[in-house]
Amino acid sequence: MAVDTPAKIAVLGAGPIGLEAALYGRFLGYDVVVYERGQVGEHLRQWGHVTMFSPFGMNASPLALAALAAHDEDYVPPDSEALLTGAEFVAKFLAPLAHTDLLADSLRPEHDVLAVGREHYLKGDSPGCEERGDYDFRLLVRDPTGREFIDHADVVIDATGVWRQPNWLGCSGIPAPGERELRNQIEYHLPHVAGPQRASYAGQRTLVIGRGYSAATSVVALAMLARTSPGTSASWITRSAAPEGQIGPMIVLPKDRLAARAKLAQEANAVCADESSGVTYWPQTDVEALTYDAGRNKFLVELSGGQEGTFEFDRIVANVGYRPDDSLYAELQVHQCYASSGPMKLAAALRGTSGGDCLEQTTHGPQTLLNPEPNFYILGSKSYGRNPAFLLAIGLRQIVEVFSIIGDRASLDLYATALRPRP
Ligand SMILES: Cc1cc2nc3c(=O)[nH]c(=O)nc-3n(C[C@H](O)[C@H](O)[C@H](O)COP(=O)(O)OP(=O)(O)OC[C@H]3O[C@@H](n4cnc5c(N)ncnc54)[C@H](O)[C@@H]3O)c2cc1C
Questions:
Q1: Claim to verify: residue 106 and residue 205 sit in the same structural domain
Q2: Protein residue with its CA nearest to atom 35 in ligand 1
């Protein structure tokens, strides 16, 4: 549904995709407000010590680089081949971008969007009808003082990511008995074991759960810590079996074009195969139940499958993926996928391409970004729901596609026409 300027776009989340979407909207002349629960790049700051596996050139749009060059002639972007940490990506790119003329006035940090509804309509009113788009969205927002207020917008772009909603570690994806109570004692993200959290992991026995690159990152970091801190060990469990003929669980993609990603997968497998690494790998193993012995500061974890029995651990790191927060748009007509909890049209397109190398992905056309709710779009990592294959390069293409719908110009592509920054 075309929305002419002037019109107001509310972008939820100032992560890389929210910020780039806001910039694109501002270039086109829309009035844009960006509500961010924390600070710009809040989630990347939280995994700031982790090195990204895609080079900077894949992660930033030409429009953003042009805006930065126009704003500050002394700005020097990172090398397009540079592999930045999350913290460096924020410091060298996102934070300066947020200060550019087009974005600075649009940003509302420490503003939490609590809910989005449609003026005059409840969720069940006029199912799938375009008339809903005749009225504004209503956003319930909480400012840094705790005050709640209502804002209005013609278009809403939800780019709030998934990082804050980790999955449960229990067998079958539901909480293991005891997990709810121990939620705050379990690490569901990526601890900085070589930095501020070293003391919590050095000389300790850690259970790591999960099979993706995050779990591999945690395991490799713990193995490095074990080299210098005696008594440090980790047991790594995955639901799946290891690929045939291999001791570790990571699939090393043949001729992976992302060298850093291939190296991480190889290192994670190598520490599993090395008996002196401090890491023991237990495939096809699930967590049945958890308790905490407060007197001895130990988790007691009941495992089943490949490894059976009750084991003691000092720490638990659950890198079991994330899920989108759909409570934000519970009053809107969003058709969610029953498997990924992402928006249905995109999820259906992604289902046809699941597995393999996420680098081989493309976007699936503007139509896959449409929801039954007119002018409501979910972009960025949240658009993939529980599917972990999202890449920033995909999110940038989504921005082009979504504005071709909003502006009703199929050929509109500011990235193709953006002035290249000086070499
Ligand atoms: C460890 C790690 C490494 C990764 N490495 C790469 C890589 O190398 N290359 C790559 O392409 N991708 C990588 N990814 C995947 C992905 O690109 C990132 O997760 C990226 O941060 C997604 O950007 P986003 O803008 O969609 O969401 P996010 O970065 O998650 O941003 C969402 C923002 O919304 C805010 N927010 C949330 N809820 C609200 C609310 N209710 N109101 C207001 N604001 C809200 C958050 O505070 C946050 O700032 C990596 C992911 C992880 C976890």
A1: no
A2: 13
Q: Give, using CA atoms, the residue closest to atom 12 of ligand 1.
A: 391
- The tokens 């909890």 sit on which residue? 341
- How far does Cα 167 stand from its chain's mean position? 13
| Residue 175 in contact with ligand 1 by CB distance below 6 A | no
Q: How many domains is the chain partitioned into structurally?
A: 2
Distances (CA, A) of 62 to 100, 260, 421: 14, 24, 8
Residues 296-339: tens digit of each pLDDT: 999 999 999 999 999 999 999 999 999 999 999 999 999 999 99
Is 380's C-beta closer than 6 angstroms to any atom of ligand 1? yes
Q: How far apart are CA 395 and CA 393, in angstroms?
A: 5
From the CB of 326, is ligand 1 less than 6 Å away? no
Residue 200: other Cβ atoms inside 10 A: 14
What crossing angle do the helices spanning 16-27 and 62-71 adopt, rounded to 10°? 70
pTM of the model: 0.95
Instruction: Indicate the residue type of 12.
Output: L
Query: Does residue 78's CB lie within 6 angstroms of at least one atom of ligand 1?
Result: no
- For residue 206, give the CATH number of its domain: 3.50.50.60
Do 209 and 335 share a domain, yes or no?
A: no
Q: Is residue 422 part of a domain?
A: no
The CA 274 to ligand 1 mean position distance, Å, reads 34
- Residue 240's Cβ-side half-sphere holds a number of Cα atoms within 13 Å equal to 13
Query: Looking at the structure, do residues 19 and 53 belong to the same domain, yes or no?
Result: yes
Domain limits for position 236: 171-318
Write out pLDDT tens, residues 277-297: 999 999 999 999 999 999 999
**Ligand 1 mean position to 44 CA, how many Å?**
6
